[in-house]
Design brief:
Elements (H helix, E strand, L loop, with lengths): L1 H10 L2 H8 L26 H27 L10 H14 L8 H30 L4 H7 L6 H17 L4 H16 L4
Helix pairs in contact: 1-5, 2-5, 3-5, 5-7, 5-8, 7-8
Length: 194
Amino acid sequence: MALGLLINLVSGVPGNSRLLTQLAAGGGSAGSGSVGSDQAIPGASSALVPLLCSIMAAVAALQQQQQLSSCDQSGTVDNSSTAAGGRQQQEQQLLRDVAPASSPPSATATDTADAAGEASIVEVYCGVLLGFLVRDCPSLGPSVASSLGDSGLDLVVNAVRRCLHFYVSAGAITDHTRGTLQELLAQLEGGSTG
């Protein structure tokens, strides 16, 4: 809920993004430049941006680990990029067809799925917030990209895309919010932030 509130604060007023990025961990104002100046942002000691990046990177790593684990458990591997992938997929399907049915999911499996869903929601909201911050404070772009590892800003773009897709599919979005997210996505994809 707090991430949603922060998104609402920054989505319509770029000045709020600048203020938010300049908040120090203790709640005081960081940076010595004027509040509306991009010059204050690079020196800001904000704890928010690194925290958001850490959360996104951790969730992405967790999801990747879960995908690998589920591939190991089911015996399937995505071989679509290999020449023999089609044959291997057929062989794996045959093995699944003759294997005995698995037992129903345990409570632990359900809890793990719930936790993964919650983590995904947090990742999406962190990504949307980072998207608005990078849009409004372009000097943050390189540090956000490097903090997110090899995926860089693609994690942010994918988070915004997933958020937009979810809310449009659920019919739980206003035209204004849809337009705002579409505009953000276009700016992030085009690299035209600011």
